[in-house]
Amino acid sequence: HFFWDTESFLKEPDKQMPTLIELLTNIGPCSFPSAGPTNSCVTLAGRLYTWGAAGKKDQMLNRSLKDRLPLGTPWSTHSPTPEIVRFPPGIKIKEVSCGSSHICVITEKGRLMSWGSGDGARSIKPTLHEVSIAGKSRAAVTVACGAWHTLAILRATDAETGGLEAGWVISWGSGRFGQLGRGVEPVEQQYAEPRPVYHLGGQTGICSTQVACGMYHCAALTTGGTVWTWGWNRYGCLGRKTVNYLNDGHLTNSGDPEQVGAIPHIMKGIGVYPRGHVMALACGSDYTIFCTRPW
Predict the structure, then answer these.
(1) Is 9 within 8 Å of 53 (Cβ atoms)?
(2) Are the C-beta atoms of 61 and 38 separated by less than 8 Å?
(3) Side-by-side strand order, sheet with 77-84
(4) Which residues, in sequence order, are CB contacts of 15 under 8 Å at separation 6+?
(5) What's the pTM?
(6) Which residues, other chains included, contact 66 with Cβ-Cβ below 8 Å and sequence gap of 6+?
(7) C-alpha separations of 165 from 133, 139, 168, 214, 242 in Å
(8) What is the pLDDT of residues 252-281, one digit of tens each?
């Protein structure tokens, strides 16, 4: 496990080149790292280690930091040493994602657990999310945390996905900018329980294989290779125009997931068409990127 940053939480000078985290070399290989204000990693043995910044009540790292020094606004404490997070016996972690004030994990049995502060988590201790779609409890395939919201994909049946590891997209947390994918009405601006997003949550039969979260926007990759986006369209990060009813020159929020239709035209325009099948995507704070492969 390597790191580099400009405000190291490992009691190291600022790093501009990848640097080995010596503390993790004796723990074992890391299978799933995640970086946010708090850094986390999952080992091959299903153990979760966290370090970095935490909130005033130490919600994110899920352990006491009373002996740590204040870090200053907006974080009050920090842990420079990777330490294991204690879960109930028998629980092993497969995947982790870090938000600004919360963490969400998927266990080896496909169950979702989250903790932290703010809108993205229900409790300061790891809490299970029991989610069902169409009356069926489904295992989680993947998870992604935004600033104060979370997306996850619940596995659909082989008949629904064609045998792919894919499923329905759910969301919870803060939806102030439409990032929950359920509109921008006041009632949708904060919700602690996971719910299906519009169009991609099982209502239309469209299954997704990947989800990604920016600060206040989201993206999903479907089994058909199409990209859907929603949330705050700051700097055009949704990859499509959104209606501005104020006519003030700014792009507005999109609370409903919609397909980014320009991708095939972009590929054709740079001379690589028809190599336009999207295979992976990711979101930064205010931007979205994708990789393609031949059809």
Answers:
(1) yes
(2) yes
(3) 30-34, 38-43, 48-54, 77-84
(4) 3, 4, 5, 8
(5) 0.81
(6) 58
(7) 17, 11, 11, 23, 31
(8) 778 889 888 766 656 555 555 455 678 899
Q: 106-163 pLDDT, tens per residue? A: 999 999 988 876 555 556 667 777 776 667 778 999 999 998 899 999 998 888 887 8
Checking DSSP bridges between strand 102-107 and strand 190-196, what pairing results, if any? unpaired
Whether the bond between 264 and the residue before it is cis, its omega within 30 degrees of 0, is: no
Contact in structure between 240 and 231 (CB atoms under 8 Å): no
